[in-house]
């Protein structure tokens, strides 16, 4: 999973169950950040958008269509 840098709001000491470093920056996946983002406790750092996921190759064989 890709991780993105977020900046904790002033006064926020804990994000995703971990103490926020002195610089206020935390690196989280979109899932890890979702709760704190919804509360406005963190915000994405400008210029550090998450890279788009690359499509994975399909595994196995395609299903046969029976008519």
Can you put this structure into words, describing what you see?
The protein has 67 residues and is an alpha+beta fold. It has a domain at 4-44. The chain is built from one helix and five strands. It has one helix at 30-38, and strands at 4-8, 14-15, 18-19, 25-28, 42-44. The protein has a three-stranded antiparallel β-sheet with strand order 4-1-5. Strands 2-3 form a two-stranded antiparallel sheet. The chain starts with a strand and ends in a 23-residue tail after the last strand. Residues 51-56 have low confidence and may be disordered.
Strand content: 15-25%
Biggest beta sheet attributes:
3 strands, antiparallel
Q: Helix/strand-derived class?
A: alpha+beta
- Mean pLDDT equals 83
Placed side by side, the strands forming the largest sheet appear as: 4-1-5
**Would you report the number of β strands?**
5
Shape: elongated
> Would you list the SSEs in sequence order as H and E?
EEEEHE
Terminal residue distance: 40 Å
How many helices? The count is: 1
Instruction: Provide the low-confidence segments as ranges.
Output: 51-56
Radius of gyration: 18 Å
Helix proportion range: 10-25%
Biased composition (Basic residues): 58-67
Region (Disordered): 39-67
List the helices and strands and how they pair.
Layout: E1 4-8, E2 14-15, E3 18-19, E4 25-28, H1 30-38, E5 42-44
Antiparallel strand pairs: 1-4, 1-5, 2-3
């Amino acid at each position: 999973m890709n991780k993105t840098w977020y900046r904790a709001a002033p006064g926020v000491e804990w994000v995703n169950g971990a103490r926020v470093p002195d610089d206020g920056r935390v690196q989280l996946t979109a899932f890890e950040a979702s709760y704190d983002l919804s509360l406005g406790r963190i915000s994405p750092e400008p210029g550090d958008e998450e890279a788009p996921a690359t499509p994975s190759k399909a595994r196995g064989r395609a299903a046969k269509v029976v008519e």
